[in-house]
Amino acid sequence: MQIHHISENNSILNKFIAEIRDVAIQKDSLRFRRNIERIGEVLGYELSKKLSYKTVEVVTPLGVKLIDEPVNDIVLCSILRAGLPLHQGLLNYFDAAENAFISAYRHHPNNDAAFEIIVEYFAAPSIENKTLLLADPMLATGQSLVAVYDAIKKYGAPKELHIVAVIAAKEGIAFVQEHFPENTHLWIAAIDDELSDKGYIIPGLGDAGDLAFGVKL
Questions:
Q1: Cα separation of 150 and 75, whole Å?
Q2: Is 124 helix (H, G, I), strand (E, B) or coil?
Q3: What is the pLDDT of residue 198?
Q4: CB-based burial of residue 75 (10 Å sphere; 0-12 exposed, 13-18 middle, 19+ buried)?
Q5: Number of other CB atoms surrounding residue 179 within 10 Å
Q6: Residue 181: CB partners within 8 Å, gap ≥ 6?
């Protein structure tokens, strides 16, 4: 797997990451969602450098200009519900992409730290021989992404596979590397060192879904 750690090089991305982590700023859910969206735009821009391009003629009022444009058939798939703001950020840049949505959540059968990933809902176009973007803001243990990919690949084989996430734990990245194809690209804004005993990223930012859309039952 090719890992693209975008915040290794300083940019305005640092400010967006700082604000979604900040316990005072992140309480503003509108601002939190917008910052996740802006991070998605930055990651989408970086990802676009790895797409395939062809030269087209663009007619201007004064002449003709040759410009290279991307030609990938993109399917953008986000994990509900936390992935929605990230999805929008990517869609702002890949506005011709087809869209897919899948649900995945942690189920604690014994009401303790142990959990399993439940995947229940999937709505998508064909992904066969297309460029699939899997968007999930938090790559913690990596189990959700693996469960989602196992569910999706029953419906076809993408030509290219890109994972787009905001914050990842090193342990989660290692788990994903073991279960995804070798030519997968991971686009990540920030990488943290640890997971808690409940499988949450430290220092992370908390629960991205709750911060974006409110606390769930």
A1: 17
A2: coil
A3: 85
A4: buried
A5: 15
A6: 161
Q: What is the per-residue pLDDT across 147-167, written as a single tens digit (0 to 9) for each?
A: 999 989 888 999 999 999 999
Distance between CA atoms of residues 36 and 185, nearest Å: 20
Q: Among candidates 137, 124, 108, which has minimal Cα distance to 205?
A: 137
- Does residue 137 contact residue 166 with C-beta atoms inside 8 Å? yes
β 131-135/122-123 pair status: unpaired
Under DSSP, is residue 183 helix (H, G, I), strand (E, B) or coil? Answer: coil
Write out pLDDT tens, residues 87-136: 999 999 999 999 999 988 776 666 666 677 888 889 999 999 999 999 99
Please state the rounded mean pLDDT for residues 7-25: 98
- Amino acid letter at 118? I
CB 76 within 8 A of CB 88: no
The reply to whether omega before 203 is within 30° of 0 (cis) is yes
Say if residue 187's pLDDT is above 90. yes
Tell how strand 201-202 and strand 194-195 pair up: antiparallel
Phi/psi of residue 6, nearest 5 degrees: -70, -35
Q: What is the pLDDT of residue 118?
A: 82
Which structure tokens are listed for 29?
């859910």
Collapsed DSSP state (helix, strand, coil) of residue 111: coil
Distance from the first to the final alpha carbon of the chain: 36
pTM of the model: 0.93
Tokens of 73: 């058939």
DSSP 50: T
